Amino acid sequence: MNFRRGSQKEEPEINLVPLIDVLLVILIFLMVSTTYNKFAELKINLPKADAEKQQERPNQVNVGVDAAGHYLIENATLNTDDPEVLSEQLRKAAGNIKDPVIVINADANATHQSVIRVLEAARIAGYSRITFTAETRTAK
To answer: pLDDT of 109-124, one tens digit each?
Structure first.
């Protein structure tokens, strides 16, 4: 007994919309969960600067940092690495100068942390104009 004689057989079809939805969700998940580490493979070579010597500014405070991490603010040696003490010395060296330029003269072998302490001290003291000095490259 064939009861389906009058009915046509339906062709099975593959619905691609749910497949595409699932693939997009997986793609978005992978994009969001991936971390990008841009410094992992970089080899950094710091450049030398070619510039003319700038004239002395009357509103500048010179800060020296040697390779051992000792600080010199306007010819006054400091035996501390506390940013609070450094900021007090920056204020004393600036005196009544309004918004002085802090010039950091750091040794090429000075640690990054030593320079960051000077930046932190300038921030605590309320000084935002900071610059660095560099040695002029010799012509070859």
So the answer is: 888 898 999 999 999 9
| pLDDT value at 32 more than 70 | yes
In Å, the largest CA–CA distance within the chain is: 111
| 8 Å CB contact between 54 and 133 | no
Domains and CATH numbers, the chain: 60-132 (3.30.420.270)
Percent helix, strand, coil in the chain, to 5, is 30, 15, 50
CA–CA distance, 59 with 99 (Å, rounded to integer):
8
Q: What is the pTM of this model?
A: 0.58
Backbone angles phi, psi at 68, to 5 degrees: -85, -5
Question: What are the two backbone dihedrals, phi and then psi, of residue 22, each rounded to the nearest 5 degrees?
Answer: -65, -40
Tens of pLDDT, residues 10-29:
778 888 899 999 999 999 98
The answer to whether 78 and 85 are in contact (CB under 8 A) is: yes
Residue 42 exposed, middle or buried by CB count within 10 Å (0-12, 13-18, 19+): exposed
